[in-house]
Design goal:
With about 650 residues, the chain is α+β, with helices and mostly antiparallel strands. The strands form four sheets. It has a seven-stranded antiparallel sheet.
């Protein structure tokens, strides 16, 4: 793959020369915007809290002023109640009406808001009424005010009459628990124009000023008109907010209330939140203009700074792209001569680019060589595949040949058994004298013929058994059988051969409880083969011993002889087919070399193994048959158990199972 192809595959990204100023602008905008939002929220919060506190202070001041006015008027009414004329009128003395009116008139100067004033005796009869007829009622309550002992005047609650708001002022005439009567004054709720100007100067024109009863039963404006009470509208910054349904455009309101002591009234002031934060919003507007100017200045500075930083990087990018396309273009010396990091980067890039150019030429040469080598490897791989295919064909042919060999051996072994059995039959007939008496020499010749027939039949049986094993046509009837019973039966078969050579045969019982998991006939054939080999390779006067030992889940059957032993280099090969311990034409023992191979195949098929446990030249050998003591735990085929790597007595290595 060429460098030009790699360069064409590189992702196309937006230039850093554009993205860096945008990034800096975005960060500045984020920081300044966040600061502006936090500052604005804090300014508006502080403005609302300060306005609420100022509104509470003004409310307390106005309530104190209203309290002072109420107390002053109460003293005036109480002073009139001490007038001698009024006392004589209540005592029943003769008082001229003009004189009584003049005394009552001193309570209500010109321009006062009193609309009615009267004088009552303690029994309830009106002595004098001025301006309007006062309300009738029980003598113990006048104008909604319950008289109490003492000489102080009391104010009644606000009430509505014909669209206007009124209240009563009642003062007792006389002292003690039973005054002589009362002066009752009905007044209209109103505030003078001067008082209104003073209130507007304190709290502004957008502030709503209201009087209400302490019970909240009636709200009234400064002009004495009834008003609807405001409703709760949640909280903001811990400040309760109100809202008026009759004036929804005012938005949320700040409410401050203060009781007017000496009266059953409360003074309430309401200020729109928008009015309270007017100054803060103006400050925020100025701050926004300042932030905008700062942002513009920062944008220009960021653009200039990023351009100074990114121009060399852009040059580096173009130069790198040129190198990727195979053309080397050095960075301008103006950038490389700079003393900062960018200058050092440019100078280092120029050096790197020159080295890359040299390396590129060398790499292209190596690529060409690698392509040549790759072609050679492909040819070698093709040859290897062809060789593998030939080897596979050879393996298949070998398997076919081996299968044909096994079938041939099985067929020939079967065919040879028939004439051998006929030879045995005719030999036995001749020995019985059916065709006439025989001489001693003839008897000996017939015995030699019979012995040769048996030997040849044994060889044919070995070949036939091995052919069956390789063809997989051997069947096993595996079960738990007593070991001593099987080994004891071997003595009758091997004792005659042992007596001929003067060999002592000994069977050491393993115990009636020792049982083995095996095919009885196959086990007998294995032991008989090992005993026959022991007799064959043990000299006159020797000894053969057979014993069995239970070891955990296995049983070991050992055949030990005092024969010639086995050479160490033969221990690994005597279990191979057609292999004998004695080789060549000078061997003293016959056989096909299949006996041990058949024994091992039988043992492994039953889950065991056959191996040489000990052997020495001279000194004899010990062959061991290792089988299962009980049925395997898993059902199904019997798994072959491998022989131990080393005998328990420290003898030779046992051969590994195939």
């Amino acid at each position: 793959m060429s460098f030009e192809h790699l360069a064409s595959k590189a992702p196309r990204e937006q230039s850093l020369e554009r993205t860096l100023p945008l990034f800096i602008m975005g960060m500045l905008l984020l920081v300044i915007g966040a600061a502006f939002v936090v500052t604005g929220r804090e300014l508006l919060r502080s403005a609302r809290i300060a306005a609420a506190e100022r509104l509470r202070n003004v409310t307390r001041e106005l309530a104190a002023s209203a309290e002072s006015s109420a107390q002053q008027h109460a003293r005036t009414v109480r002073g009139a109640a001490r007038d001698p004329v009024i006392r004589r009128a209540l005592a029943g003395d003769s008082v001229a009406p003009a004189e009584l009116d003049s005394a009552l008139h001193r309570i209500v100067p010109a321009g006062d808001s009193a609309v009615a004033i009267g004088l009552w005796r303690a029994g309830g009869a009106a002595v004098s009424r001025r301006v309007l007829v006062v309300q009738e009622g029980a003598p113990e309550q006048r104008g909604g005010v319950m008289p109490t002992p003492g000489d102080s005047a009391r104010y009644g609650p606000l009430y509505l009459d014909d669209g206007r708001v009124y209240y009563w002022v009642v003062a007792p005439v006389g002292t003690g628990a039973h005054p002589a009567g009362w002066i009752a004054e009905r007044r209209r709720l109103t505030v003078t124009a001067g008082a209104v100007r003073q209130i507007n100067a304190l709290v502004g024109r957008d502030v709503g000023v209201y009087f209400r009863n302490d019970t909240g039963s009636l709200w009234a404006t400064l002009s004495g008109a009834p008003a609807r009470p405001s409703e709760s509208d949640g909280h903001l910054d811990g400040i309760p907010l109100r809202r008026r349904r009759d004036r929804p455009t005012m938005g949320p309101l700040l409410l401050a209330e203060a009781p007017i002591r000496g009266t059953p009234w409360t003074l309430a002031l309401e200020l729109p939140v928008g009015t309270a934060t007017t100054g803060a919003r103006a400050t925020l507007a100025r701050l926004a203009m300042v932030n905008l100017v700062l942002l513009l200045v920062a944008a220009v500075a960021a653009w200039a700074l990023s351009r100074r930083l990114t121009r060399p990087l852009v040059q580096l990018t173009h130069a790198a792209a040129e190198i990727a396309r195979g053309a080397f273009t050095p960075i301008h010396e103006r950038w490389a001569a700079r003393g900062d990091e960018v200058g050092r980067l440019a100078a280092g890039f120029n050096r790197m680019a020159s080295e890359v150019a040299a390396s590129r030429a060398a790499l292209e040469q190596q690529v060409k060589e690698a392509q040549t080598l790759g072609d050679e490897l492909e040819r070698a791989n093709a040859e290897l595949q062809e060789s593998t295919l030939r080897a596979e064909h050879a393996r298949v042919a070998a398997e076919e040949a081996n299968r044909a060999k096994s079938e041939f051996l099985a067929m020939m072994s079967h065919e040879l058994r028939t004439p051998l059995n006929a030879i045995a039959g005719y030999t036995e007939l001749l020995q019985l004298g059916i065709h006439g008496p025989l001489t001693t020499a003839q008897h000996e010749d017939l015995e030699r013929i019979r012995h040769s027939q048996r030997t040849l039949l044994t060889l044919i049986d070995d070949v036939l058994n091995y052919a069956r094993i390789e063809a997989g046509r051997v069947e096993y009837a595996v079960s738990e059988i007593p070991l001593d019973e099987t080994l004891a039966g071997m003595e009758a078969l091997i004792a005659p051969q042992a007596r001929v050579k003067g060999i002592t045969y000994e069977h050491r019982p393993a115990g009636a409880a020792v049982r083995v998991w095996a095919d009885r006939r196959k086990l007998e054939q294995i032991v008989l083969n090992l005993l026959s080999n022991a007799v064959k390779f043990t000299g006159r006067g020797g000894r053969i011993t057979v014993d069995g030992t239970a070891t955990g889940d296995h049983v070991l059957v050992r055949v030990t002889d005092t024969g010639c032993g086995i050479a160490p280099d033969k221990l690994e090969s005597i279990f191979e087919p057609f292999t004998q311990a004695e080789a060549g034409l000078t061997r003293t023992s016959g056989g096909t070399g299949l006996g041990l191979a058949i024994c091992r195949e039988f043992a492994r098929a039953m889950g065991g193994d056959v191996y040489v446990e000990r052997s020495a030249e001279p000194g004899g050998s010990t062959f061991a048959v290792r089988l299962l003591a009980r049925a395997p735990r898993e059902g199904g085929a019997i798994a072959a158990a491998s022989a131990p790597d080393r005998a328990s007595d420290g003898g030779w290595h046992a051969p590994r199972p195939r």
